[in-house]
């Protein structure tokens, strides 16, 4: 019973742990790699006695497809992954994002950007690393009032970018170790008016009390940006664990073209959710080649220290 350390109650030790989450975008069916990330997020949270939340990231209305959210949630249920509380949808939380954007704006931290993607790419000359082509070169950062008026008159709707001041952000990833990057002036509100992924995630992770973000390693480049935003908004910064991805046999990120990669595909091929779980467990070094582990069994033996950090190449079981 040591209140100051988060322990409460007499006799029972209840640790006040922050929540975990899985945050799919309902833009297409989840493949076995995405589902493995969901399993890991669930295992991280549940093995720590934390709550596990599901958040539907449906802000990009042009990419959301009807029925996909339902199918994704059905997949989680089929695998036995349960969650706490109601599903949270970003499309229903616009006010929260707008408030955060207004706060950044009031602090003089945002500026309108009129650049097209092609212009940004053309302005970035020499490659300075993998994400160099996506790094904003600052073209619109210091436009004069007259220059802005000229761009406005040309009729191109601006996006809003944050003044990141080339902040160098480092963090300790639970799986990948130390990661560091210089943050560019990234988009906060898109030029179609939608809040950008980065700000929505930061606002939601804080509002939902997420203590540890578990997600695919493909998102690690976003993390310094999100940490910077949390700091600018005076929000708590969660811990991070970026889990390794599943690749297709060609070494590319797993996708539909690699064949029967969704749960529905696997079921159509004669497998059950337990076979898919078994593949996940084996690929994570959590089960032997012939073992058919249950979710409870995996939970009992889960140890983040033993997770692979290298990607897994997906190959369906030979028939
Ligand atoms: N919605 C994002 C995706 O499906 C994940 C965001 C996150 O986990 O931070 O790629």
Topology of this protein?
Layout: E1 7-8, E2 14-15, E3 20-22, H1 32-47, E4 52-56, H2 68-79, E5 88-89, H3 94-106, E6 110-113, H4 117-123, H5 145-153, E7 159-162, E8 168-173, E9 177-182, E10 187-189, H6 197-207, E11 212-216, H7 223-232, E12 239-243, E13 246-247, H8 263-268, H9 273-283, H10 295-301, E14 312-313
Helix pairs in contact: 3-6, 6-7
Glutamic acid is lined by residues 23-25, 57, 201, 215, 219.
Task: Report a brief summary of the structure.
With 319 residues, the chain is of the alpha/beta class. It has helices at residues 32-47, 68-79, 94-106, 117-123, 145-153, 197-207, 223-232, 263-268, 273-283, 295-301; strands at residues 7-8, 14-15, 20-22, 52-56, 88-89, 110-113, 159-162, 168-173, 177-182, 187-189, 212-216, 239-243, 246-247, 312-313. It has two domains: 20-95 and 198-313, 3-Layer(aba) Sandwich (Rossmann fold); 108-196, Glutamyl-tRNA Synthetase, domain 3, CATH 3.90.800.
Describe the 3D structure.
The chain has 319 residues and is an alpha/beta fold. It has 2 domains: 192 residues, Rossmann fold (3-Layer(aba) Sandwich), CATH 3.40.50; 89 residues, Alpha-Beta Complex (Glutamyl-tRNA Synthetase, domain 3). Helix content is 32%, strand content 16%. The chain has a 3-stranded parallel beta sheet with strand order 3-4-5. It has a 3-stranded antiparallel beta sheet with strand order 6-7-10. Strands 1-2 form a two-stranded antiparallel ribbon. Strand 8 and strand 9 form a beta hairpin. Helix 3 packs across helix 6 and helix 6 crosses helix 7. The N terminus is likely disordered. The structure holds glutamic acid. Glutamic acid binds next to loops.
